[in-house]
Design a protein that fits this description.
Pfam family, one: zf-C4_ClpX
Strand content: 5-15%
Family: Belongs to the ClpX chaperone family.
Strand order of the largest sheet: 1-2
Shape: elongated
Order of helices and strands: EEHHHH
Protein name: ClpX-type ZB domain-containing protein
Number of domains: 2
Helix content: 40-55%
Keywords: Chaperone, Metal-binding, Zinc
Distance between the termini: 18 Å
GO molecular function: protein dimerization activity; unfolded protein binding; zinc ion binding
Radius of gyration: 18 Å
Structural class: mainly alpha
C-alpha cells in the first residue's frame, strides 16, 4: 500500500532526504540521481556504490522498504492510465496486451478502482 510520501523513483529517498525532487509523468527523480545521470552521460567517473553484501541487516531492510514504497508511486500512475484508457472505452484486451498480460489479468488487477 503506498504511503503517499513523495520519493525518488530511482533511489527511493524521500523529499525530506534530498534537496530537490523533480516530478515527471508518474515518476520522480531527485537532484542526486540527476547529478549521477549527468556524470554518466558526460562519461565522468561515478562514485562506487557499497556492495550490498557489505551492508548490515538494518541497512538492507531500510533499502528494501524505501524501494518498495517508491513502487507504489509507479503503480498509482499505471492505475491512472488504465482508468483514463477505460474512460475512452479502450478494451481490457488492449490494456492487457500492452502490459504483456491477459485481458483477464488486467481486469483483475485494475477493475476494482473503476
Amino acid at each position: 500500500m503506498p504511503d503517499n510520501v513523495l520519493r525518488c523513483s530511482f533511489c527511493g529517498k524521500t523529499k525530506d532526504e534530498i534537496q530537490q525532487l523533480i516530478a515527471g509523468p508518474g515518476v520522480f527523480i531527485c537532484n542526486e540521481c540527476v547529478d549521477l545521470s549527468v556524470r554518466v552521460i558526460n562519461e565522468q567517473p561515478i562514485p562506487s556504490f557499497p556492495p550490498l553484501d557489505g551492508k548490515s541487516d538494518e541497512e538492507l531492510l531500510a533499502d528494501m522498504v524505501r524501494l518498495d514504497k517508491s513502487r507504489g508511486q509507479v503503480e498509482a500512475a499505471v492505475q491512472d492510465r488504465v482508468l483514463r484508457l477505460r474512460s475512452r472505452s479502450v478494451t481490457w484486451a488492449r490494456i492487457g496486451e500492452a502490459l504483456g498480460i491477459s485481458r483477464q489479468s488486467a481486469w483483475e488487477r485494475f477493475s476494482g478502482e473503476e
